[in-house]
């Protein structure tokens, strides 16, 4: 069998102990790896009542069966825990080179338990694993930490570094984890969990290889996938213009949020902030994660001016919106600078930008004043106020302490009717695709297991027509502005998308080929000769249901599957003007096709069929 | 009277529809990137024995010249978009947005993708013009 090493490390920070634990073969196939395996282990450990920032909240860092192979886009890994931002299941995934490095160290993952009394880092280097003092790194940002560790561990091979910045140390609820300087476990505050454990960094360097079950087929499939990707227009667009390639197209279909979700169309804005503009102005070169022929990542430089930024990682689409269109400001250099600070401090640029846009809105409506902001003016159309807020929130200084809670927490504390200005579901800010222009996406936001999320499913790509998968029963075209018939599509989009974060595979590669092709690749790596698209989908369903059950155990009910008032307010202009999703109808249909009861729990029979009878028993006994 | 698609009459009517369109006059204003050729791939069962090209010299919101061309001539244009008959029919019915169609590989582009994606408004306005041409589709009675 291939793909897995078959073991993970449990690192107990309170005791300073490191133990090697096996991953059974049947568990590998049933939960795949990454965030699916994390959910299984989380359930087994039964700590769903743990304080997200307390010692009992275990942190799972897991690769999947294809991580670290040469299958294009297989560089990814997942980090999961109970989220300090949302209080429910939290997870994120990133590319980069950490997953292949970890596999080369001879393990599939790490589970971090307990809290260390002082800053530490975990080092896996050429067969040795140890915890080392990290007091000297505490207080450094992620770029500085990465540079410092790479200097001290200089050798024939560069180590891969996972680190947190000051935001993680200061328990900012949406702190992220950086892999080197370019890739981030962004959403749901996994960096704060790492900070609560005083784990500053994980560094790994190894020489091993990933076992491959059928090397001959594997080689042929890798080659054919690279060819397919090479011919696909989405790959070409991502390569040439990055993830921000289609911002003008997004503007045309009502996808782009403007001025904290208040306006529907402004082509000048999208033109100024789009991928083509970045390519013509600040782009130095495109960069790739390990084993990726697409290379969508941007390396940029702002050579001079108020937002002068040295050569380094550039913003992706989401950040171009969260620090651009959401603030109704057109200065791309300002977005690049904001992005640099998000990266350095280690905060999720979506939640950070959205929380700051909420503060701008509060300021415009007189709910926050200069006295509250420490004299900083928060004015739509300008980015300086946002950068000032980033500095404050990362350090929890002044108003930054409020903003560090995320928009839901901040609005709750501020009150004054400011809750109506947030746009979040289950505590996670809606990502930068306006669901008023894509009603299926609205439903997927409502039902996603980590709150409003566009990466736990393929609904965005399917509904926007960026990818089509006729071989799995999906239609060719979906009308974004209609709520009709979306429940079935969303369910399929979830079942297909969820396993990607377990394998773990970059979604963009999946825009370039069909599921049959992916299945052939999984078979060649793992040796599961009878693995099929059907089993893949069933696994996706199982993982969705498992995470839903975990959320139920953490308090989620049907009442949480709701769109915020902001999104139920029609836009004045643009493609989606005057329309809002029919949340009631879509939810009703979805509950039917997914098999959820009135309380929002999966039905026992559905869980049993999915191989989750044990989970069903626990859930239905307790709630 | 409805015009057969594709045909010389249809191209002429499309040309007129573009120049009569306030949407294209506005949306197409930034388009200064040269000729766009649209090619319907050959489909003998519908009577399209050879690929049918439509040469559109578009500039700043105006169609300056148009004519039927061969696939070979079409490929000399800075932008050339190929597609099967059924795909173009979807485009004219506004069921397939052309830039999305290119992303999905349903329409093939020869030309600079960056220029295309930043001119989606012009593409949208062109489609609106096409919908205004009374069209007789070859696969319909
Ligand atoms: S497409 Fe982009 S994010 Fe995905 S693996 Fe390649 S470089 Fe990384």
List keywords for this structure.
heterodimer; A: 623 residues; alpha+beta; Aldehyde Ferredoxin Oxidoreductase,  A, domain 1; Aldehyde Ferredoxin Oxidoreductase Protein, subunit A, domain 2; Aldehyde Ferredoxin Oxidoreductase Protein, subunit A, domain 3; 3 domains; six-stranded mixed β-sheet; 17 strands; B: 141 residues; alpha/beta; Nonspecific Lipid-transfer Protein, Chain A; five-stranded mixed β-sheet; two-stranded parallel ribbon; 7 helices; 38% helix; globular; binds iron/sulfur cluster
Cα end-to-end separation of chain B: 14 Å
Task: Report the count of strand segments of chain B.
Answer: 7
* Number of beta-strand segments of chain A: 17
CATH fold label of the largest domain in chain A: Aldehyde Ferredoxin Oxidoreductase,  A, domain 1
What do we call the CATH homologous superfamily of the largest domain in chain A? Answer: Aldehyde ferredoxin oxidoreductase, N-terminal domain
Q: Give the overall form of chain A.
A: globular
Named once each, the bound ligands are: iron/sulfur cluster
Q: Remind me, CATH topology of chain B?
A: Nonspecific Lipid-transfer Protein, Chain A
Order of strands in the sheet with the most strands of chain B? 4-3-2-5-6
User: How many individual helices of chain A?
Assistant: 28
**Fourth-tier CATH superfamily name of chain B:** SCP2 sterol-binding domain
